[in-house]
Amino acid sequence: MLIAIIQVVDMIKLYSYFRSSSSYRVRIALNLKGLEYETIPVHLLNDGGEQFKPEFSKLNPSHRLPVIEHEGNVIAQSVAIMTYLDAQFADHPLIPEEPLAKAQCLQLTEIINSDIQPLQNLSVLKKLVKEHGFSEEEKVAWIQHWISLGFQSLETLLEKTSGEFCLGDSPSMPDCFLMPQIFNALRWDVEMKPFPLITKIGKNCEAHQAFIEAHPSNQPDTPKDA
């Protein structure tokens, strides 16, 4: 008698906030890889920020999103999460194996991850307003400056690496980072005319189902008036 052996894989849990650009990145990555996941909302503003609650602090003492749980493993930081997903699940690799392509992938990713996003992070903006007296206009100008500066670098590099997406004609890790950054740029009225390649790639991402499903407007914790 044959006995069927069924491999049970734990559902991935994603701790996410609908408007968190870092959570948005990981939602795209999960969708590109065709992985099912459970979204656990963590509101970054309610009650002083649910990320500071004891139960979440146990998961991530840095009090940052996103975080995933999978088979007993808890992983934070979007680059680390995507590296883990690539190692665990072979479908639709996010990071190329070829050395130059891998380096280009990480270079494009880190311009967004290290040079742009941290300077427009919610905690940074709060400090600028509360401790340095930034007006709303000064805060917006700060955001626009750092996004535009980072986009200048990206636009130049994309002349060598891009096709329909950041690395050729298939979406990969840099696209997971770029689309949320474009979302923020448009939200803060950054002038996009100087960045035709970024704009083209953004349009291609917008039409891709994995990106559509990951969009902040399509999340279980998205407010009806958002």
Sheet with most strands: strand arrangement: 2-1-3-4
Low-pLDDT stretches are 1-8
Query: Which structural class should the secondary elements be placed in?
Result: alpha+beta
- Radius of gyration, rounded? 18 Å
Total number of helices: 9
What's the number of extended β-strand segments?
4
Question: What is the overall shape?
Answer: globular
Strand fraction band?
5-15%
Largest sheet: 4 strands, mixed
**What is the terminal-to-terminal distance?**
57 Å
Explained architecture:
It contains nine helices and four strands; from the N terminus they run E-H-E-H-E-E-H-H-H-H-H-H-H. With 226 residues, the protein is of the alpha+beta class. The N and C termini lie far apart (57 Å). Strands 2-1-3-4 form a four-stranded mixed beta sheet, covered by helices on one side.
